[in-house]
Amino acid sequence: MSDMFDNQYTRISTRGGYRRGSRFPIADIFIIIFISILCLTCILPFVHIAAKSISSNTAVMSKSVFLLPKEIDFSAYKSIFKDGTLTRSMVYTVYMTALFTAFGMIVTICGAYPITKKRLKGRNVLSFIMLFTLYFSAGLIPEYLLMKQLNLLNKMWVLILPLMFSPYNMLIMKSFLQSTIPDSLEESAFLDGASDFQILFRIVLPLSKPILATLSLFYAVGRWNAYADAKYFITKRSLQPIQYILSNMVLSSSIETISLSESAEVKSTPEVIQAATIMFATLPIICVYPFIQKYFVKGVMIGAIKG
Amino acid sequence: MVPIACVFIFKYAAYPGLRMAFMDFKPAKGYAGSEWVGFKTFAKIFSDKDFQRALNNSLVFNFLDLLIGFPAPIILALLLNELRYKSFKKVTQTILYLPHFLSWVIVASVSYTLLKPETGLVNILLIKMGMIETGIPFLTEKWHWAASYLLLAVWQSMGWGTIVYLAAITGINGELYEAAYLDGASRWQNVWYITLPGIRRTTIALLIMNLGRIMGSNFERLDSFGNVQVKDFQYQLAIYIYEKGLSAGNFSRATAVGLFQALVGLLLVLLADRFAKMLGEDGLI
């Protein structure tokens, strides 16, 4: 992917001796330092919190924990696991996110594929109907009442169904299909007697694997990180996704206290518990991030070419 | 047909609910039992002090967001483009994209942990270095909060925002640089006369999209960073709608504000699009 970012300019610079005759080596050094500092601001906070979460209470209290843990102590994590709220919520959120992603992808494919077909009558009207929601939505209260009428309040499905159609993702899918799959391919399959579904499953989908991966990840990460709808529509604690639980635990007005049940036998100070809670919710993203990152970049590029 | 059904059930079905804005809506009576009041609700909200404050805050903060947040990825993309060490570039890009993948809750929790006046790492370090005597209330005093709120958003989105610009830079014809090199153009001249004009279209397209959002506000971001001490600034339209509507049960009023917000947003997008076309650029719609 990064090859794409290297424009001619850099290539000239390495080939044509530009490096030797560089007029501003100081500028280079400045840029490298500046970017390195930016990178550090993206990493160090997490290193610090991770260190805090496995340090002993006294070390944290004496404000001597910076980037390395002192007097390693896992009791904060032990109480989190004993309490169980976070672990349960984590399992639930993974399950919900997986369902959401699967549904979202089905809907996106069903939406994007037909409107790339020229023989579909009124496809412009259809895509306008679908895209209009991107620019104009009814707003929170009408949606809230709608969910109430649909009897979806306090159900897991309220986190899945309303958002599973994303006009933006559909646009990306559509422009991918239009740009990569030649009409002639489908026509010849059609002449060979393949049905529409066979064309979709045997030809189109296998050819669009990369974009399917990208969009699945868009859906999954979006769902994983969102919590506003849970705040609006869900009051039952067992149905709240992990981000919402985290926001309640760490950001609730009384910042210094943290609510774990008594059975958790909390031995750590609120600060350590907080650090551990944050790490618990952040680690999954940080762990998968390096592997999924390149798919995201791809998706943004396809979207950008369109835009 | 499934997506069409989805759109109708979950989006269009909510539009009739907008009529609440013109009613004195009582949840117990439902739509049928509530009284039509015309534009009275709108008259009411525009004279409502809370609404004025929320609108004001939304506009000011969104404008500042645009002012700081929009150029940041462009500058960063230009800097990244100047980097000559491929592997360094690749690693830094990966790292810089990371914050984009973290939710506002996580960004906010991390910031609170690091920026607390007494126990936050940043303040501890600053005190130890002797630069300040007492901790700076980065997130618990409204002016400091405003700065942190804006800068943290820049931090979160800057790296990710570069992707589009880097892609646009890749599309610039390499011969231009070659010619400029032969003409003895300096690096700065290269950037100014080739790279920046080369990404102009992308920039304008993105600016239009962002202009359309100047009315909107991100509830999660405001909610995550909210606390009692900074209510004055944190009180923006999204919070207004949530508190008046869901918490206080004043449905009509919150709907009216939501409708106002959506309509102005739509209008802004259309205007910006028209404007871009007038300038001879490709619009969005």
Q: pLDDT average of chain B, as an integer?
A: 80
Name of the CATH homologous superfamily of the largest domain in chain A: MetI-like
Assigned CATH architecture of chain B: Orthogonal Bundle
Q: How much helix, percentage-wise, in residues of chain B?
A: 55-70%
CATH class of the largest domain in chain A: Mainly Alpha
Using the coordinates shown, work out and report the CATH topology of the largest domain in chain A. MetI-like fold
Give me the CATH fold name of chain B: MetI-like fold
Shape field of chain B:
flat
Biggest interface: chains and residue counts?
A: A-B, 98 and 103 residues
Uncertain regions spanning at least 5 consecutive residues of chain B: none
What value does the Rg of chain B take, in angstroms?
23 Å
Oligomer state equals heterodimer
CATH class of chain B: Mainly Alpha
Count of alpha/pi helices of chain B:
16
Share of helix of chain A, binned:
55-70%
Task: Give a description of the structure.
The complex is a heterodimer of chains A (307) and B (285). Chain A has 307 residues and is mainly alpha-helical. Chain A has two domains: 1-73, no CATH class; 75-307, MetI-like fold. Chain A has helices at 2-5, 8-15, 25-53, 57-61, 75-83, 85-115, 123-135, 140-149, 167-180, 183-191, 196-207, 209-225, 228-233, 242-251, 270-306. The model of chain A is unreliable at 1-21 and 253-257 (pLDDT under 50). By secondary structure, chain B is an all-alpha fold. Chain B has a single domain (41-278), classed as Orthogonal Bundle (MetI-like fold), CATH 1.10.3720.10. Chain B contains 16 helices and two strands. The relative contact order of chain B is 0.13. The mean pLDDT of chain B is 80. At the A-B interface, helix 1, helix 2, helix 3, helix 6 and helix 7 of A face helix 1, helix 5, helix 6, helix 7 and helix 9 of B.
